[in-house]
Design goal:
Oligomer: single chain
Shape: globular
Helix content: under 10%
Distance between the termini: 52 Å
Structural class: mainly beta
Mean pLDDT: 89
Number of strands: 20
Strand content: over 45%
Order of helices and strands: HEEEEEEEEEEEEEHEEEEEEE
Number of domains: 2
Number of helices: 2
CATH class of the largest domain: Mainly Beta
Low-confidence stretches: 1-18
Largest sheet: 8 strands, antiparallel
Length: 259
């Protein structure tokens, strides 16, 4: 009987020590929305471990944008959460510009399930401006920021009616508009950048003369400048970056994913 008791106690202790899955938010530049010509961003959620049939409920995140800009034009991401279930709510001015809360109110008959290791695009959205901004940044509103008190909300993600939000990824919590700024674009037909995602050598092919190739973090820090069309990315941490290619014709900006 004593042996059975100890075995049961150890089993219960093991279950109690099992870590609960949580989700970390991040923001990523997607590209230019072809329908609006605005900068398009993605609100991402990455689970702490691979998930199976995680049932999504209500969720939301706060963002700062430069004063006078707005957020909207929602598009469904790879999570398949319908864009129609998202809304942008103004929270007024705050410490880092104008604050908006992007909230999802589940409205479908069937819950959207998350499977895999992510990251999951909860929703794609525009930073609405004309012209696109060349300075400032979009950044998360952190929980505890007084601007959240205006609508009594915070960053959260409900999975099966339980909030599993952990934090905003400190390495992907903002995107600098200065990094994205450009006067003209090179057509995708005139330049080839591959593979992307990349884990070893990045190749850049174009018929035009390359004046400069630059790689930036999402926060706007320049980490590489070169004119070589083949770049070894092993020196960089895995994550999302911004790639700028300047030629004698124009320049292009691409999202670069390093695995």
């Amino acid at each position: 009987m004593r042996k059975l008791y100890i075995t049961t106690l150890l089993l219960l202790s093991s279950i109690g020590l099992t870590a609960q899955v949580t989700y970390e938010f991040s923001v990523s530049f997607v590209g230019i929305n072809p329908n609006t010509n605005n900068y398009q961003m993605a609100l991402l959620a990455t689970p702490s471990e691979s998930v199976t049939n995680n049932s999504t409920d209500d969720m939301g995140a706060g963002f700062y944008v430069p004063t006078g800009l707005t957020i909207g034009n929602f598009v469904t991401g790879n999570s398949n959460i319908p864009a129609s279930e998202w809304a942008s709510i103004s929270m007024g001015p705050g410490a880092f510009g104008d604050a908006y809360f992007l909230g999802r109110d589940e409205a479908g008959q069937f819950s959207i399930l998350l499977n895999g290791s992510g990251p999951f695009e909860l929703v794609l959205f525009d930073v609405i401006a004309d012209p696109n901004p060349s300075s400032g940044e979009i950044r998360f509103v952190e929980n505890g920021d007084p601007v959240f008190d205006t609508i009594f909300i915070e960053n959260y993600i409900n999975i099966a009616a339980q909030n599993l939000y952990s934090q905003n990824n400190p390495l992907a919590s903002a995107v600098s508009f200065q990094t994205l700024d450009m006067d003209t674009y090179i057509s995708n037909r005139d330049i080839s950048i591959y593979p992307n995602p990349v884990s070893n050598i990045l190749h850049i092919k174009t018929a035009h003369s390359i004046n400069a190739i630059e790689i930036y973090t999402l926060q706007g820090s320049l980490i590489l400048k070169t004119t070589h069309s083949e770049i070894n990315v092993n020196q960089f941490q895995s994550g999302t970056y911004i790639l700028k290619v300047q030629t004698d014709l124009a320049q292009t900006v691409k999202k670069l994913i390093i695995k």
